[in-house]
Amino acid sequence: MSGAREEDAVTDGTxxxxxxxxxxxxxxxxxxxxxxxxxxxxxxTVARGSVTVLIGPSGSGKTTLLRCLNSLExxxxxxxxxxxxxxxxxxxxxxxxxxxxxxxxxxxxxxxxLFPHRTALQNVTEGPLYxxxxxxxxxxxxxxxxxxxxxxxxxxxxxxxxxxxxxQQRVGIARALALRPxxxxxxxxxxxxxxxxxxxxxxxxxxxxxxxxxxxxxxxEIRFAQQVADHVMFLDGGVVVEEGRPGDVLVExxxxxxxxxxxxxxxxx
Amino acid sequence: MTSDTWDLVLSSIGPLxxxxxxxxxxxxxxxxxxxxxxxxxVALARLSRRRVVSGLARAYVSVIRGTPLLVQLFIIFYALPxxxxxxxxxxxxxxxxxLNVGGYAAEIxxxxxxxxxxxxxxxxxxxxxxHTLTLRRxxxxxxxxxxxxxxxxxFISLVKDTSLASTIMVTELLRKAQEIAxxxxxxMTLYSLAAVIYWLICLVLSSAQxxxxxxxxxxxxx
Lengths: 269, 222
Prior knowledge:
The complex is a heterodimer of chains A (269) and B (222).
Chain A: H1 3-12, E1 24-33, E2 36-46, E3 51-55, H2 62-69, E4 77-82, E5 85-88, H3 95-102, E6 105-108, H4 120-131, H5 136-149, H6 165-177, E7 183-187, H7 195-211, E8 215-218, H8 222-228, E9 231-236, E10 239-244, H9 246-249, H10 256-266
Parallel strand pairs in A: 3-8, 3-9, 6-7, 7-8
Antiparallel strand pairs in A: 1-2, 1-4, 4-5, 9-10
Helix pairs in contact in A: 4-5, 4-6, 5-6, 6-7
Chain B: H1 3-46, H2 51-66, H3 69-79, H4 89-115, H5 118-126, H6 131-161, H7 173-184, H8 187-216
Helix pairs in contact in B: 1-2, 1-4, 1-7, 1-8, 2-4, 3-4, 4-6, 5-6, 6-8, 7-8
């Protein structure tokens, strides 16, 4: 498919593209910040083409878990495999290996983190042009198509501050897609948005899921999780308290902690 | 004013402007350009995770900021020859002023780099940019906006500080004024004239700064 993918398969030499294994496998992940143990032995498996939603109270470790998948946080121990890139976190992985892991995914941030000095189109082309060094004509054509796909064909020349929150976030999604990643990571993509723009972002995400993208999403949008997720994990205190199909975890949770959390989210008063 | 004074003003303007154009202005421009490059390197060294590198940078900034510019100038021009290092007046001044700008501007640039949110570094990392590309394409363009006002101050101070070069026989604006004033005793006229020329140069620079700031602000929400 993409140049980046073929290159990885070649350099890896194991020919694991077309692998039958799940796209993501995480085993025994631990991470602490000083005395604070944020992750206490997390396992996670993400099937190809599936959507996994991570829910949990703030401080539960869900965002940290997400950030360990692309090594924005480096865990103390455990193993992370995304497709053919496998990293043993306890073995002091090299920066090069962490970069390879990071290159498998694209990420959408809670506070978009678009580059304010670049237009929407330039934000989308930055990675493919300067990190992946793909030809400009091809990259710009693809970026233009991606902006159209997220409904922003007419905003290519706009700077981020000229866009609404929902539009900024959709540019962020296009920027992630432009990398031709194998995995999409979303860190509370709608938490910082005005309520009326949440829908446009969730719609784009639902469409991506329908196209078969493999996604891991940290969110408080329980309805989105019910409709789109294949797998839901409830984290609390750095452990996975409960996981399973959204129809089970979100509708008839087994654990008291899950029940209480859902009640607070769905019925805050 | 008497007509004699007027004659003196008219006959001095040419030499004074030539002192500005051939001394003050090139000395300022060259020293600032060299100093900025030095400052960027020192700022990056200060931010380095390697203790030795950041320690050396910190020591450099501390020495430059902790000693008078005039002393730095004298060491380079009058003291180094005793070690066998003899540098002409103009290059000596360039070295001293560049080192000085390097120390002050390094702190400005460091602070400007730190003012760019951590999320921008992370976003750059997630799209595959390495450290150098992240600095060049994402962080420095945003840091520039923050750094321009304080760097303009440094630049404008430098214009005036170059008058110190008159003490090591560089023929710049103040030195010209001294040379003309000495035989005539018209200190008030000549030094006032020099002051006006310094002031005009700084006025031009201030308006250039305002324009640059407006240009850099075009992508920022107000």
